[in-house]
Amino acid sequence: MPLRPDTVAKIQDYARRYPSAQSAILPALWAVQYEQGYVTDEALAEVATHLKLPPSLIEATSSFYSMFLTRPEGRHEVMICVNAPCMLRGADAIVAYAEQRLGIRDGQTTSDGAITLRSTIECLGACGGAPMMQVDHRFEENLTPDRINAIFDHLRTAPAFHEQPPAEKKPARRTPTVSGEITRSGPSGARARTRKASK
Amino acid sequence: MGLKPVLTKDFGTEGLRQLDAYERTGGYAGYKKALSEIKPDDLVELVKKSGLRGRGGAGFPTGNKWSFLPKGMYPRYLVCNADESEPGCFKDRYLIEESPHQVLEGILIAAFAIGCNTAFIYIRGEYLPQYEALESAIEEATAAGYIGKNVLKSGFDVDVILHRGAGAYICGEETALLTSLEGYRGEPRLKPPFPAVKGLYGKPTVVNNVETVANLPHIVVNGADWFASMGTPTGKGTRVWCMSGHVNRPGNYELENGTPIRELIMEHGGGVWKNRRLKAFQPGGASMMVLLPEHLDVGLDFDAIQKAGSLAGAGAMVVMDETTCMVDAARRYVKFFHHESCGKCTPCREGTFWMSNLFDRFEFGEARPGDVDLLLDMGYNIDGRSFCPLGDASTWFPRSVIKYFRDEFEQHIAEKGCPFRKETEAAVAVA
Ligand SMILES: Cc1cc2nc3c(=O)[nH]c(=O)nc-3n(C[C@H](O)[C@H](O)[C@H](O)COP(=O)(O)O)c2cc1C
Ligand code: SF4
Ligand code: FES
After folding, report:
1. A residues 140-169 lying closer than 8 A (beta carbon) to B
2. Where does B231-321 sit in CATH, by number?
3. Residue B370 CB burial class (10 angstroms; 0-12, 13-18, ≥19)
4. Mutation test of ligand 1: which of B171, B209, B236 has the most ligand atoms closer than 8 Å to its C-beta?
């Protein structure tokens, strides 16, 4: 499936933006993943022609990075961090709960194709709100079973990230969506502020 | 000492993420002052004099780093390191979310000081909302004439390119970051040559952390003496500490350097949760050595923490209560380093793999007598023999845990499994 013209235009734009076209590989791969949901060999080859670089180079670079998917997965990706700071706040129990609730294990996808579940050892930068999970590209923090149920119910019917209209895709800045605002670390920030105010 | 909001002073102001609100709090005054009143070289001197040290982990004096750029070599680049992926760290995210313009203003000041016309921000792939916050800040600043040609008629041209990573902790290491930004696999390069001499695209380059640059507007507006009046003799200013783990109020706290660790954990963090006793804590993030309750009166300061046997690193404070299995905590970190090892050099690539396997043996009841010494032996063979600090650092926390909690390892061997885990809870096996 060839890339859409607007994706191609974006890639060509990136190639001009950087002092070297090779720097445009990661942005180009992001554009591909946004359009198609994952990055096929065919798309890699097409990126290579637009950036005027050998396909092997694109492949060598893309395979280093863990966020580019190479095959179709569930419409939504749920990642639960189990690194030490999250472990301390009960991340293992959250993984167990999510597995039981969805009936799948780490790395599997629900039979309706809605959710791919992963437990990850990569810290996602939300340790202050642990236990946490990343749902597509948003953080959900201070999880409770109720919260998890609500998130999963929503995901069962929500369109995949790459299929959402742009306005919806933009993680909310001012208008909270189901998963709340960008300042999900807000509780931590807000707390620091109240402490300050009381001084 | 104590809470000292400088960077976080205006956080919570309505609409602070937008330019007009940021300007109402005094935003971009530092940039304007720098452009109109201060010569670039004097700006470098000012930052030197302030005593600002890098907040990305190594604590290198920022002004000195800038002055290493070879004279007369152009173009030169500035890269703001927003790759924040050290387990335990979430302060750069907070600074960007709350006030993206403050970070951007810092970048613009640094670019002006070092004579850079193209600045980059490298942000980790997972931080998409934060990427978008910076993206719209750049749009607004461009429309306001802070970015572009001949900024505010000063003759200074500057462009800012926002670049998104794609999931690789090692790309936070500055040379790996540059390799990644050039479009290669994110593997570290040999130093020297240092990036200041031969960095991005082979040109002189400065890499500065998000929090480091966020300090700059304040230093320019208030002066070097004001900045140097805060903190300790070798650790000026404040730091934003990210606290996580077993405290009542985890979160970000900006404290004057030198504030005792006790105050951070017990006062601001509300103490250890569930009325439990403190067992250990770890300043600096996943890489750094564990400390004990006896170290609570150590000040939050690069040198003081180093003297106590750990490192302040990127300013994370992970708190562990008496129910924590130190072996499992170390196991998670080792797994993380194994997962994130770039594979370039053997001691780290193979060593973290074997260490991780050995830790699984402890946790799942298969460890044998002598395995603790085997673990130490692996540590010695990785530390100092790895190509970059990731490999070295993968051994620091586990070895410090063996130093203070060796009996817990022996207990895992004797009891054939984890003495802390109740039968109902299963440890998560992560590949
Ligand atoms: C494995 C590794 C990971 C690192 N990750 C980061 C990071 O995520 N963010 C950061 O600012 N510095 C990180 N650093 C430190 C950078 O190499 C570099 O020292 C820093 O960005 C310089 O900025 P500063 O002088 O302002 O601290 C890392 C270093 C190593 C060895
Ligand atoms: S120490 Fe690890 S991360 Fe660093 S170069 Fe070697 S393999 Fe890569
Ligand atoms: S350790 Fe889980 S988000 Fe940091």
Report:
1. none
2. 3.10.20.600
3. exposed
4. B209
